[in-house]
Amino acid sequence: MLKTGQQIGQYLIVGRIGEGRLGDVYQVRDAGLGISAALKVLDVETGVREALVQQVHQQSTVQHPNLAPFTDVLEIGGQLGLVTELIDGPTLELWLASYQPTLDETLALFRGIVCGLGHAHAHGHVHQNLRPGNIMLSLGDDWMIPKITDLGLAEALGPVATGQGSRGVAPNYTAPELIHHPQEIDRRA
After folding, report:
1. CATH code for the domain in which residue 110 is found
2. What range does the domain containing 144 cover?
3. How confident is the model over 111-168, as pLDDT tens digits?
């Protein structure tokens, strides 16, 4: 576990903000740019680490208002750190548990998610683990922007995240073909 005030490369640890399926998430401050970001620390095997680094580099240039791509990769004492945009709101999963959206809000969310996914697909990226917990909401007084997170993570983790291993898979949101034929995955899954 990282400590508040600890320096990791150009990033200063501000505090731990959560725990995901694959590791802890921290708020960090980029010392050079002076901006806040999120750091996801994953404990993964060496072969998987190399695939993740390659995947992050491939998708880091995919820019869209409804995507929160990883922007940097760090080595942290044998673990892998993935830096991404810090989003100020809850996950779609948490938000829906405490709020009943209007039809207009639902359509706006759906439109944003579909636009983000469409952009990712147009650039050759398939999420493979899209679920309400991987969609963060940036909320304002009269607006909300859904941001798809963890793009490329399931693809790089392979069987670990696609149903042949229990880490990272969300069975209630996983397409059956993703479980039964993971080698044949395309954007329709």
Report:
1. 1.10.510.10
2. 92-184
3. 999 999 999 999 888 887 889 999 999 988 888 999 999 887 766 666 544 444 444 4
Sorted by sequence, the CB contacts under 8 Å of residue 80 that are 6+ apart come out as: 41, 42, 43, 44, 49, 52, 53, 73, 74
Which one of 85, 117, 142 terminates a domain?
A: 85
Contact 26, 39 (CB under 8 A): yes
Concatenate the DSSP letters of all residues of 114-174 into one string. Answer: HHHHHHHHHTT---S---GGGEEEEE-SS-EEEEE--TTHHHHHGGGTTTSSSTT--GGGS
Q: Give the integer Cα–Cα distance in Å for 11 and 26.
A: 11
What predicted TM-score, i.e. pTM, was given to this entire model?
Answer: 0.81
What six digits make up the tokens of 31? Answer: 């010392």
Question: CATH number, domain at 14?
Answer: 3.30.200.20
